[in-house]
Design goal:
By secondary structure, the protein is mostly helical. 66% of the residues lie in helices and 3% in strands. The protein is globular and about 75 Å long.
């Protein structure tokens, strides 16, 4: 399949972040955002959603740590911002190059695989209005990811990951698939919450009856 010129540069753009950087050095978040240019939203959303798209027994609080930045990024997309804004205190935080290199090289490898078959389709989803739709759905998914809900993390994360890939390659079909997966994840998370509340109410009623009688 044909592909636009910008697609072949996404993996290269990622690798350029750590190019000429000493392994024992560091990179501030402001520098990282500047290097990612106007593709920062898609790349950072992918980097934060990808680990949670794999259903593993993560330690308590892990999904919240990754979910909050996603909430921050998706809110900016929803507001129509074209460039990532980070607070000064956060922008000054530094990341170890050797740790960042592992994530970037793995991500660049995945993007090189996608570059073989992605192409611009369904332009509405990558328009200004379409990006706000993605931002709104991602915002809902981020809330689900950040909360400690059983089965409420992996599927919404996978949806956000697919939307971010589609956004980077201007592929509306991939974005649409990501939207469907996101809604499926939100439905599952909502179902778990509703059933959990009903179960809690039932057991509370039974305990009350047991203690105080009918």
């Amino acid at each position: 399949m044909g592909q636009p010129d910008h697609e072949s540069t996404i993996s290269q753009l990622l690798l350029s972040v750590i190019e000429n950087k000493e392994e024992n050095g560091s990179l501030s978040i402001n520098e990282l955002v500047d290097k990612l240019q106007d593709r920062g939203f898609g790349i950072l959303m992918f980097l934060f959603s990808f680990p949670m798209a794999i259903p593993l027994p993560y330690p308590p609080g892990f999904t919240t740590i990754l979910g909050l930045p996603l909430l921050f990024f998706s809110l900016q997309m929803l507001l129509g911002m074209h460039h990532i804004w980070v607070p000064k205190w956060l922008g000054r935080k530094e990341l170890k190059v050797k740790h960042l290199a592992v994530a970037i090289k793995s991500t660049a490898f995945i993007f090189r695989k996608f570059e073989k078959f992605m192409k611009p389709r369904l332009p509405f989803f990558t328009s200004a209005r379409g990006e706000k739709v993605i931002g709104f759905i991602s915002f809902l998914c981020s809330i689900s990811i950040a909360l400690p809900i059983w089965f409420g993390n992996a599927i919404p994360s996978a949806g956000m990951m697919l939307m971010s890939i589609g956004l980077l390659y201007l592929d509306g079909v991939m974005i649409l698939i990501g939207i469907v997966v996101s809604f499926l994840g939100l439905f599952v998370a909502s179902l778990v919450v509703v059933l959990g509340l009903k179960a809690f109410k039932y057991f509370l009623t039974q305990i009350t009856i047991f203690i105080f009688g009918a």
